[in-house]
Amino acid sequence: MKVQTKKAVLDKVDRQIIAELARDGRRSYREIARSLEISEGTVRTRMARLQDDGLIRVTLVGNPLAMGVGVGAMILLRVKPGYVRQTANALVAFPNVRFVSLSFGKGDVIIQTLHKDVADLHHFVSETIPEAAPEVVSTETLQLAEVLKSSWTWGDWFEYLRGDVQDDDQLPPETTG
């Protein structure tokens, strides 16, 4: 999945629909419409637009530890100049790589990975990455000891943006989904 980078204009109703689905993605358009006191057709139309524009997709978020993931890690990769995007694109292909980002600072590319155990993590860093991305000059692996928060509830984000603003329509117009 390519992450949407185009700035989007989300109004109050768009944000409310997204927040409702983030709480429970199984809710019907009818339930959301009732909760927000808008028509079911409005919810259906807006959902289609948000999905067609690549701003949202409805998916399942699982608990990695409960599903047998033994080790999670954040890996910072330093890459030869001129090969950063190529390297990142090579790492996107791996099913155990959950997040890939270009960065500034200690790492040119940052990835989050999931592994069966420490040996699997070691093999990934010492064998798989060098084979897939030979332009990597160094790595720094941060093994996750305990995840205290992993939240993707967009209602929380919209609440954060709101801050002291009393009227939701005063939110910055360029909010991405």
What report would you give on this structure?
By secondary structure, the protein is α+β, with helices and mostly antiparallel strands. Helices cover 37% and strands 18% of the residues. It contains six helices and four strands, in the order H-H-H-E-H-E-E-H-E-H. It has helices at residues 12-23, 29-36, 40-52, 84-92, 118-132, 154-162, and strands at residues 71-79, 97-102, 109-115, 136-144. Strands 2-3-1-4 form a four-stranded antiparallel β-sheet, with helices on one face. Strand 2 (97-102) and strand 3 form a beta hairpin. Helix 2 packs across helix 3 (40-52). The longest helix is centred in the last third of the chain and has 15 residues, at 118-132. The protein starts with 11 loop residues before the first helix and ends in a 15-residue tail after the last helix.
Strand content bin = 15-25%
Residues in helix, % = 25-40%
Overall outline: elongated
SS field, number of helical segments = 6
| Arithmetic mean of pLDDT | 86
- Which structural class fits the helix and strand makeup? alpha+beta
The spatial strand order of the largest sheet comes to 2-3-1-4
Q: Which ranges are low-confidence, i.e. pLDDT below 50, for 5 or more consecutive residues?
A: 173-177
Query: Radius of gyration, rounded?
Result: 20 Å
Q: Give a count of the beta strands, DSSP E runs of length 2 or more.
A: 4
